[in-house]
Amino acid sequence: MPRILRLPPFLVFLLLLATAGSVQAAADTALERIQQRGTLILGTSGNMPSMSEVDASGKASGFDIDLARIMADLMGVKLEIRVMPFSELLPALEAGQVDVVISNVTITPKRNLKVAFVGPYMTSGKCIVTKSEALANAGQSQDLNTPETRLAVLGGSTSEDFAHELFPNATLLQVADYVQAADLVKSDKASGMLTDYPICVATLKSNPDAGFVSVFSLLTYEPIGIALPPNDAQFINWTENFLDRLTGTNGIKELSARWFGKTQLKRQ
């Protein structure tokens, strides 16, 4: 007679219940939850023009939004978009409030300690949008490292970290979004806005008469990736294969052409 049948009936029931629960938990992967729910929940900031932005009607659009829509389509589910401040995106992913974060997020070792990344699907560097010819023509970073240089930076971004590191003496103006940053530069309340290449392109396109000059720096390497929950090998593997296929079929190039066109920036 099997040993388990010698146990009291209530213990047998508890053991079977625990075993069933373990099997169910093991099968409850992110992809299964997404398909059972019928939606892929995207976390995005909505304040990075041409990457992720929200219009007056509340509709989200941009390169990152299109990328997420393609992901959802290939999963056979709908896309649900949750817009939140950039600094809250990765914590929301860790807490299980969103399935994926696509919002011009730079892959960094510090962030990678807490969440998984697939990519990069785009690489860029830091650039400065300014109206000041002197600032645009600055030959070295030391020329900008003065209290008189007032730089608008997005709170919680790698641009803010970069500015603290490279321009410790400059005056940093933390902003909630890049529209606010551009307005500060327009009104001469900021010398310039420090951001990533895609945002520079979008800012130039949306402000053709502002007299902006944009300088793209090669001092940084910014790999932009898709952030996923850690410890879910299947979801990570699926996203890797998705991104490989999209890149191999020129899907990334087509999205880039749609959202950024052929705008060129001055490089230092």
Structure, described:
- The structure is a single chain.
- With 268 residues, the chain is α/β, with parallel strands linked by helices.
- The chain folds into two domains: 30-122 and 224-263, 3-Layer(aba) Sandwich (D-Maltodextrin-Binding Protein, domain 2); 126-216, D-Maltodextrin-Binding Protein, domain 2 (3-Layer(aba) Sandwich).
- Helix content is 41%, strand content 25%.
- The chain has helices at 9-27, 30-37, 63-75, 86-94, 109-112, 133-136, 158-166, 178-186, 197-206, 233-248, 251-260, and strands spanning 39-44, 47-48, 52-54, 60-61, 78-83, 100-106, 116-124, 126-130, 150-154, 171-175, 192-196, 213-216, 222-228, 266-267.
- The protein has a six-stranded mixed beta sheet with strand order 10-9-11-8-12-14, sandwiched between helices. It has a five-stranded mixed beta sheet with strand order 5-1-6-13-7.
- The relative contact order is 0.16.
Q: Which radius of gyration do the C-alpha atoms yield?
A: 23 Å
Going by CATH, what is the homologous superfamily of the largest domain? Periplasmic binding protein-like II
Tally of helical runs = 11
Uncertain segments are 1-5, 10-27, 263-268
What is the mean predicted local confidence, pLDDT?
84
Compile the SSE list and pairings.
Elements: H1 9-27, H2 30-37, E1 39-44, E2 47-48, E3 52-54, E4 60-61, H3 63-75, E5 78-83, H4 86-94, E6 100-106, H5 109-112, E7 116-124, E8 126-130, H6 133-136, E9 150-154, H7 158-166, E10 171-175, H8 178-186, E11 192-196, H9 197-206, E12 213-216, E13 222-228, H10 233-248, H11 251-260, E14 266-267
